[in-house]
Every structure is written in C-alpha cells, then in structure tokens.
Amino acid sequence: MLDIQTSSAQPQITPHVTRRADYTAPDWQVPEIALDFALDPAATRVKATLHVQRSDAHDRPLRLDGAGQTLLSVCVDGVTVNDWTIEGETLVLPLAGSAHVIETEVEIAPERNTQLMGLYASGGNLCTQCEAEGFRRITYFPDRPDVLSRYQVRMTADKTRYPVLLANGDPIAAGDLPEGKHWAEWRDPFPKPCYLFALVAGDLAVNRGSFVTLSGREVSLGIWVRAADVPRTDHALAALKAAMAWDERVYGREYDLDVFNIVAVDDFNFGAMENKGLNIFNSRYILADPDTATDYDYDGIAAVVAHEYFHNWSGNRVTCRDWFQLSLKEGFTVYRDQCFSADQGSAAVKRIEDVRGLRAAQFPEDAGPLAHPIRPDSYQEISNFYTATIYNKGAEIIRMLATILGAHGFRAGTDLYFDRFDGTAATCEDFVASLEDASGTDLTQFRRWYVQAGTPRITASLLHHEGSGRAELVLAQRTPPTPGQDVKQPVVLPLRVKLFGADSAKPYAPEQTVLLTEAEHRIVFEDVRERPILSINRGFSAPAILETDRSAADLAFLAAHDDDPFARYEALQQLMLDTLVASAGGARVDHSAVIAAIGGTLANAQLDRAFVAEAVLLPSESFIGDQMAVVDPEAIFRAREALRRDIGRTLEDAWRTAYHAARATTDGYVYSPEAKGLRRLKSVALGYIAASGAADAGALAFAQFETADNMTDRQSALTTLVAGDSAQRTPALDIFYNRYSDNALVLDKWFSVQAMAPRDDTGAIVLELAQHRDFTLANPNRARALVGAFGVNQRAFNAADGSGYRFLADQLIALDRLNPQTAAKLIPPLGRWKRFDTNRAALMRAELDRILSVPGLSKDMAEQASRSLNG
What we know:
This protein has 871 residues and is an alpha+beta fold. It contains 26 helices and 31 strands.
C-alpha cells in the first residue's frame, strides 16, 4: 500500500467553467499547417508553420493553446518576433492584417509524459493521443474542434530505433539521412480538427491487407504491432474489412484515402482513437488468438475496430463544432457499431449485452451526482464527459430516432446529414434537423432528450374488460430530478407493444409501436376475448425503467412464449429480480417459479444456446441494489447466493447435461455464433454446478482449466475456481500466472478475476495484489484491471469497515499524480454514497473529502470528486 500523506483542506480555487451558451466562432482559422518533428524520447523538437486567416473584421489577437512545452522561437511572416505574451499557458500574438504565416518551435519530452496525452512513449515507441485537448501538448495551436486544417507532416528520427514513421493521410516521400537517421512525409488532403492528428514512430511490423471500394479504388490496409504479435492481428484485419464493406452497404459511405493504418500500443487511456487514416488502439482491442483472448475479447475487437473505422464519416468527415456536441459523433457511432456487431452474429444476444451494459453503467450515472444530458451545458474538464451517457445513452437516442423514422427515413436523414455537413464542424441540432428535413417528421419534442438528464420511468397497466372484449393499456412517464434539473418534461418514448392470449399463447395482432409523448396515455385494443398478457418495450425500444402490474405467472408465460427474444429474456430477468429484491428485503420467498422458468428455458431445444446462456444468468448484485431504496450489499449477496444454490441443486442434472453436451460438441476453437453460444452455456452451467455445492465441482472446473484449448474455457474455469474454496483454487491461479506472466493483456485477466471474486477475503486479496511486482498504476489497463474491477465488486468494495473505500481513495490519489484522466474515471463508485446506509455513506464522504484535500489535485479529479460529494 502506498503511504499517502495528506494535508488539511486547502483553499479552493474557483475552477474555470466552459459553458455551451457562451460559444463563439473562432477568431482565426488555420486552413493549412505543416509540422516538422525531430523525434527523440527525451527531447523532441517540433516546428509548426501555421497559415492563419482572420475570420472577420475583428482586431483580436491570435491565441494559441499550449501545455507543458518549452517555447524556443516565434516568427511572423518569416521574421522573428518578441512582442508575444504567455497568458496562463496560451501564446498571445498581436497581429494586424487578415492573413499571416506563423512559425513556432518548441521542445517536449515524450518519455516523461505519464498523462498519455499529446506525444508520449509506450513500449519503446512514440505515439500520440490528442482527443480531447492533447494537441496543445505537442505545439501551440487553437486547440478546438471547429478549427479544421489540412496537415502536412515531416518526421526525422533514428532509423534503428524508429524504423517506421507513420502519420495521418497518405505517404508522399521518405529517405535516409546521415548519422543513421531517416525521414518521412505524410499529407492528409482532408481538413480535420487537431484532435484527430496522429503520429507513430517505432520498431513495428505490419500485417497488410487490401480492400477494394465500391468505386473500384484499392485501399492498402496495415495493422502495425511488435513483430511477435503479428500472428495475433488476423482477426482485427478481418473485422476492418467487414466494417468497410458494411458501411458501404448500410450507409453508402466509402473510404477516401489510399491507406488505412492501425497501430496497437500498450499504454492508452481509451479503447482506441479514430485519427484520420491512422487509428491508434489500445493493444487489448487488436491482439487475439484462441490461447490468449476470450470470445468477449474477439467480439470487443471487432466492435472497436468497426467503431473507429465508422468514425471516418461520423466524426472525421463531419466533426463536432464544440465538445458539447461529443455525442454527435460518439452516440451515433456506437449505434452504428452495435448494428454492425448484431449483423455479424446473434442480434438478440447483442441487444441483451448492450442493454445490460447500459443498465450497469449509464442508469446509475443518470441516477447519481454525475448525471448530465447527452449534450451537456457546461464542464470544467472535458475529459470527464467521455461517459456512458455520451456513448451508450447517446446510442439509444439514435436507435429511437431510427425506430421512429423507419429504415428508409433514417437512411435518407443520415445521407442528407453527411452530404450537407461534409468537411465541416456540426452540432447535434444539425443532425436532428437533417433527419427532419429528409423525412418530413417533426422532432421538436424529441430534442428534449438532448437537454434533459435522467432515466425516464414508465408505468404500464393493462386492464381487460371481459364483457366488452376490450383491453386498455394505461401508460405514464416521469423522469426523476437530477442535479441542476428538478423539473422534467415528458420525452418521446417509442414503445414496441404486443398482446398475447393467456390461454392460447397466440398474439392478438401484429406488434405496434406506440409513441408515448405525454405524461399519461391510454390505448384501447378491440376484440380481446381472452385474458391478454402484455409484452412491452420489446427490443428495449426506449431506454427507460419499466414498472408493470404483470404477475409472476405472466412473466413466466412471456419467458416461455414471447416471440421477441429481448422481451422473452426481460420477462425471465424481471421474474428473477422481483424474487431477489423481495428476498434481500427480508421476505421469505419461494424460488420454485424462477427455477421452473429457468428449467423450461434450458430445456427448449429451439432456442439459440447463446440466448439461453444469457437468459438464465441471474441479475448482478449491483443491478439488484439499483432496485432498492437503500442498498444492502450483504443481504443482496446472501439472497443471490441462496437462489443460485437452489437453481444449481434443483436443476443439477440439467446443468450437467448441458455442460457435457457443450463439451462434446466443441472440437477445437472456432469463432462462430454457434460455437460461442456453446462455450457460453458451458460456462454458465459450470457456475451453477459449483453453486449447487456439488462435491466434484472443483475437480470438474480444474479439469476444464487444464485441458482447455482456448482462453474462453480456461478463464471461465478459473473464475469458478477463484470464487470457491476448493483445493484446486491456488494451484490454478499459480498455473495461470506462470503460463502468462509475460503477456500483459492476459495478466490483466489474472488481476481482474481475483478483484471481482464473490469472496469474504477479496478485499484483503486486492490489498496484497496492489503490492504485487506486476502491478503498476502507470499502465491504464493494469490500473483498471485491479482498481476498476474491485470498484464494481459491490459486496467487497462496500465492506462495512470502509476498507474498500480507503483502498480506492489511496489508489486514486496516487494515480492522479501520474494520469489524471484515468484516475478521474475510476471515482464513480464513491459517488454513490447516497444509495447506502448512514455508516457507509459517511465513510464514502470522508474519502471524497480526503481526495479533495490533496494539494495539487488535477482538474479532472477535483471536478469529479466535488460533484460526487455535493451533487
């Protein structure tokens, strides 16, 4: 454990707040920029030549953002000048006239850049990350997304150390220099904001491919990694080709450069970055083979590769006017990558996974102190708004628009948007207006989704009037208050609805989409002779919390008969959830209805095995807690474990049959929807066998662990062993560590599986792991693997003595000194203090106070901790 010394609370400096209402267009534009890098890890020289143009008749000076660099010289129109000033970290140049050529030279130190923003060193290579405000750490520039420039880049470096030199756009020239150096030049013909600038220099090998566009152009593809990792890039390359073809087919968008490069790096704050023509990826979203990557890893790689490629249009060719419009590119692109992934495998399972992620991350955000609309009104540090709300909820807003407009209307709207704003910096309003203009649909009320935070709550009650043969669906909506927004207006909620006969199990009529636009709404169904059962929000058509008066019998019926896969899944999950919440609240609950419904689902040979595996999993402890007025981690854990035990014992024969059938069917690792489904069901079955208390569960799991020919099976067996107390637990952990200790990505799994284990001693184990020789806060993946994973372990993190809170605060304070951006993203678990009992709430608040008292706290952490404490 780090020995963190803190002082008493320091006087708070009023932070600068950027407000959307204060937006003004840039005083100066920079249509052309040339950059010349003399690359060196200790001291890189950057010469920048900016062709600047005054935007209108104003007389305001040129202001260029900078951070953490040494300014060596400034020239205006070829003449060295000294009449500049530095205000804060902004270079201010008084200029007369409407156009000038500005030249600056600065020095930066990539190897000392632990924030991983700007130009930094990773694994012996040099690379960049500029979104949101990293470019100012490279050179002086108006670092805002509405300044679009054409870039020409020259790099000079030691050829032995950095034989590969890459940048945005297309290569135009290269050559050797004396003293073992070489150079390369790249030019990007498309205007882009500086946050999309990219550069990589390193000792890299490439997996090359090609793609022929619809218009017949051949694009050279390259995935650049360490030479030893090239064999693990085939899946990413195949995913890239599939994404390029899909975007042409579904959106009519063709790639526009001659080359498309991806580089994988080990140290990265995000998943990946869509820099024009040169995507830079966290290596976890590129490298895969059966021995080191799970099915989830394979799926994640395909999704992230597609996401960053799709940004070429939704983010690059059309970018954001300002950072308040972040969801314009991210929400839209997440929706696009979700649809792509659904088309590559099981659409039903993909929808389940997306909604589960939304509920796990975004719903709590909406219900807590960090709640904000998908288009925020203000921020102190923009990096804090790369959130589940911007990405995941943003995608759901786009999905609702697609539902409301229909496939033809939505495609016409996106075509108009891309055509109308190509090469410009647009707003969320521009996007919605394009959909309106193309479809003729009034979306005035729908715009409320962009300005209101919070998750709507829908109540639905179905009344059956037997004598008249009519049924009436009574709907109501409300959105609870969020920080700064006490009063909410009704939003547009497209609800896909269908009625089934309780006796015949037949639908009364085709599915219909109901637009709930008012606080209350009633719909009458005619000719309903048989008692109807309501299937609503099918496909999770609206991102809302649904409350209905459906009985346990109704939910069991839908779990067995609903023809919408998500609604079928949801009914079984709701049946489980109602049982678990009641049990955690102290009620004596009969588990038989849940067990019967799970047994029926498991026995239904007509259902996709991947769907079955997802449907029979119990809701997470965190999601159960979200349904309670006061979260009781211990009671939730006991209730969930008791139900797992009963399900395991009662259906033990069925679980063993499913387990052995899946093992017998899989012959070697195949990455296909069918094979993934069998592996997933095998993992779930093994978990329930272990939960039953079966004497051979440990041996069964260890046998799978030892004989597995793929990481999916090996990790699922390890997870089962780590959660239990069998004699094989420690040997399995040791074997796994020894086998993969030289593979950082797999070792992250070793840390995470222990941090997330549902054990009494997990807190103590995590404290020991934080001292392990392979643990470091300097690598974001490793920090997230231990500290981040522990933060979502509801029971262990929320230990009554506050030890989990102290551990997280200690790690955040230490990490903030290295990498504020990553640190700030790990604080949300402490911000949920209002959801817990008085003792836990006081302990969380004390840790937030302690964090805020640390001298020199970053803006990122100060904003998040303050909002978490006071929101």
